[in-house]
Amino acid sequence: MGTALACHQQGLAPDPSTLVTPVGSVSAWTSSCSRVSGDTWGARCLDDGRLSIFIADMTGHGPIAGVNTLRLHALLNDPATDPEEAPDAVLRRLDKALKAVLPSGEYAAMLYGIVDPVAGRFDYAAAGVPHPVVMDAAGRIVASGSGKGLPVGASGAFPYEKRELDLVPGGGLVLFTDGLFSLVDRGHPGADAFERFTVAMEAMVGGGTAAERLDALVSAFDGPCADDVTAVCLSLAD
Asked: Rounded CA gap, 57 and 38, in Å?
């Protein structure tokens, strides 16, 4: 079951090279602490040139968490829903739906948003994930949003709100699950993990763009993962 589930799960995430959009290019890094991951991500090019994107971290690890990622993808890709649905409305819908089908104590920390290249803005809603980060073309962090919010499926009626981040042409938007903190802290994340992550990103030897720095940060860790890891970087067009 584990192997089949892992293969099915891997097929859900898009091939970043197929996400052809005026927004920019997408890069993604994933790693699992077991055969099946409780993390997942996705993105979709909208008809008007915008890009919808999400990351999610289901409760726990292994097959149960993996099955729940399939449920999440099914809800997000329901053909009866509007692909341009507002981010806060998406999380409210998922919160209600997952509350009805997941056992008590199971839920998803996640972030869902839409990148608008014309407005130069990222509209999003969050449910208990690390803060999204905006970097400039030189790899400096210029802004961070808020990832706070109750995980979807925990309440069924949580009032998620829409948030905004201004983007920098030629810069990057970085989204990630909290497993990335385990890489930064070598398997033992603690207090102020987000601050240590931002310091590590800006201090990467060789510098480079947001995507290059994130790749170097992930590649520098060669031990077993203490947690599932997903990181996505949108490299913005000039």
From this structure: 6
Work out the angle between the directed axes of helices 87-101 and 62-76 (0-180°, nearest 10): 130
In angstroms, rounded to a whole number, what is the distance separating the alpha carbons of residues 237 and 25? 8
Burial group, residue 50, by CB count within 10 angstroms (0-12, 13-18, 19+): buried
**H or E element: which one contains 68?**
helix 62-76
Neighbours of 209 (CB within 10 A): 20
In contact, 155 and 163? CB cutoff 8 Å: no
Note the pLDDT tens digit of each residue in 65-113.
Answer: 888 888 999 999 888 888 889 999 999 999 999 999 998 999 999 999 9
DSSP state of 16: G
CATH number of 24-33+40-57+80-236: 3.60.40.10
Rounded to two decimals, what is the model's pTM?
0.92
The full set of domain ranges for the chain reads 24-33+40-57+80-236
Residues whose CB falls within 8 Å of the CB of residue 69, separated by 6 or more in sequence, listed in order: 9, 12, 37, 38, 39, 40, 56, 58
